[in-house]
């Protein structure tokens, strides 16, 4: 798998490596499929994580480990969408807004998770070259994928918050292709957010257990 870490081409003076390019193109396809509410978003997400894991394994153990978590969440997302019974007439997942309790839980998990992962990265510098932003992006990605697995519109907001840090961080660390892809992510996130938002307003919302009908 050494070819994954070799240079594919040079763009605007930046050296683009194969793993950076292939992994992020697959990530872009994943987001587009998520916008379309296609079940295939999860296998492609898993494949993206697998490519990056193969590229990092053996020399960047922290980055490889993060991809294992991403692949695990992708499998969870596939399972959730596959078993979801509230499907639209087109056979896809029905988007919904999270409850306030779910939002609070995700915000709390993101905050605690970011601090915990950043402290881990700080204690073991070989895991990350920029602990706090890297932890924020990693935990934010996991939270976004979890919200997507649950069909929550808020997953788009989570991706947007990840992009706000991911774009400058990738450019600063020399991953120009990732930076450009994150800019495209931003555009897809805004369009996808609008689409899911409108669909959630048109779709009947499930009644929470214990709530009045």
How would you characterize this protein structure?
- The protein is mainly alpha-helical.
- It is built from 7 helices and 2 strands; from the N terminus they run E-E-H-H-H-H-H-H-H.
- A hairpin with a 2-residue loop joins strand 1 (7-11) and strand 2.
- The longest helix is centred in the C-terminal third of the chain and has 27 residues, at 176-202.
- The protein is globular.
- The model is unreliable at 205-213 (pLDDT under 50).
Map the helices and strands.
Layout: E1 7-11, E2 14-17, H1 18-35, H2 41-56, H3 61-83, H4 100-123, H5 131-149, H6 154-172, H7 176-202
Antiparallel strand pairs: 1-2
Helix pairs in contact: 1-2, 1-7, 2-3, 3-5, 4-5, 5-6, 6-7
Question: What are its keywords?
Answer:
disordered C terminus; 7 helices; 69% helix; 213 residues; 2 strands; mainly alpha; single chain
Low-confidence spans: pLDDT under 50, at least 5 residues? 205-213
Helicity, in percent?
A: 55-70%
Helix/strand-derived category reads mainly alpha
Shape: globular
DSSP summary, beta strand count: 2
Summarize the model shown.
With 213 residues, the protein is mainly alpha-helical.
């Amino acid at each position: 798998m050494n070819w994954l870490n070799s240079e594919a081409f040079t763009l605007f003076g930046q050296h683009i490596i194969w793993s950076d390019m292939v992994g992020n193109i697959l990530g872009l396809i994943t987001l587009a499929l998520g916008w379309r509410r296609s079940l295939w978003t999860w296998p492609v997400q898993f494949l993206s994580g697998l490519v990056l894991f193969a590229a990092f394994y053996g020399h960047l153990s922290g980055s490889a480990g993060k991809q294992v978590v991403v692949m695990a969440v992708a499998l969870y997302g596939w399972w959730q969408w596959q078993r979801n019974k509230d499907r639209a007439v087109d056979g896809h997942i029905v988007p919904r807004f999270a409850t306030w309790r779910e939002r609070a839980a995700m915000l709390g998990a993101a905050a605690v998770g970011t601090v915990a992962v950043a402290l881990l990265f700080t204690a073991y510098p070989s895991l990350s070259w920029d602990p706090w932003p890297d932890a924020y992006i990693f935990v934010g990605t996991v939270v976004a994928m979890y919200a997507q697995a649950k069909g929550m519109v808020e997953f788009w907001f989570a991706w947007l918050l990840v992009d706000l840090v991911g774009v400058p961080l990738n450019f600063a660390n020399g991953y120009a292709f990732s930076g450009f892809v994150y800019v495209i992510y931003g555009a897809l996130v805004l369009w996808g957010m609008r689409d899911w938002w409108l669909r959630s307003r048109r779709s009947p919302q499930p009644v929470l257990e214990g709530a009045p009908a």
